[in-house]
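In practice, a research group might receive sequence data for several interacting partners and want a quick structural hypothesis before committing to experiments. The following worked case mirrors that situation: the sequences arrive first, and a predicted assembly follows.
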Amino acid sequence: MKVLIADKLSDRAVADLKSLGAEVVFEPGLTAEKLPEAIGDGEVLIVRSTKVTAQTISRGTNLSLIIRAGAGVNTIDLLEASLRGIHVANCPGKNADAVAELAVGLMIAADRRIADGTADLRNGVWNKKLYGKANGLRGRTLSIIGMGSIGRKTAEIARAMGMETAAWSRSLTPEKAEEWDVTYCATPEEAARMADVLSVHIAAGSDTKHFIGREILESLKEGAIFINTSRGEVVDTEVLKDVIRTRGIKAALDVYENEPAGGDGAFEDRELAEMITGTHHIGASTEQASDAIADEVVNIVRAYRETGKPLNLVNHQDKSAGVINLVIRHYNRVGVLAAVLNELRSAQINIEEMENSIFSGGKAAVCTLKLDSEPSAEVLERIRQGEHIIQAGVK
Ligand code: 3PG
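A structural hypothesis for the assembly, expressed as tokens:
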């Protein structure tokens, strides 16, 4: 198995991958532009923020698995990967502590104006009068939009600081909210209205582009703090600038629309930079998170090598179109299933999913096939009459 690593990954992870028997090509300096050429006959591609374009995917003639050494997969052309039957996996939750820590850090930095104060000190200016005004966070309400692992961690840290927590998330129910000790909000606007601090933790995708727009941002109280450590694209930046100007919103951001893809470059939106407290998309960039991510990358490759099934797949359909389960118990012999598949083909029945497992002793096996339509009584009978079939039926 040839593994191409096109971003930074710890020496330990590289060594672990080699000890799994993989041939590892480690090229952390590769860019999105160079990747189509570099992909060669690599079977597994491991990336962090380097973009994986449709061109890279189509040039990877041997490519079967792309691993995002992180959580967000918006840098990978998922559509192209799915069209070509290439698995895409990620490392969810592994950098949640790091991102949550930064979200809370930004909250405090925005309330105490730490960045502005530092800039003044560096210019030889002492201004306790100006920077001595802050709201303080204890007893204030932190509203969270997006209660995945990062949102939940952020709430947990905020509660330890004595903050009240409220949340809206697409799948959040009042029961879940109670379990997670947050006040349930029925809409994101309601969460924004309650917030002294609003923190965003949703994934980027075509359905979340500018999700945080005018309605949510204008629901914020005057002077509230707004934090984004998720993705720049989920916030309408022009509206954000507007509410910073008109409603005194204090924004602290780690991610930006059109931020540079690499580790360095120019930051174009100087107007925004003047208005906010900002970091450089470093939410996940701690040693603790890098180690946890690297371990998970190795786990994914190990599972793929041992079972053919990678962990944490993001581009598999949860539910296939298969509506009928055909269960076949059979003796473990060559050609038994081929004969079943032949019968289904003749009846123009499509198989959406298939799983075969063997009983102890290796004599018998059971195969479950998810079909797009029900086989007629005649087709079932022909399957049952097949050689080495013990039993066949629709469940
Ligand atoms: C993630 O999606 O895991 C984080 O945003 C980290 O992204 P990065 O690996 O590009 O720092």
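Before designing any experiment, note the following. The mean pLDDT is 96. The pocket of 3-phosphoglyceric acid is lined by residues 48-49, 70-72, 95, 281, 283-285 (CB under 6 Å).
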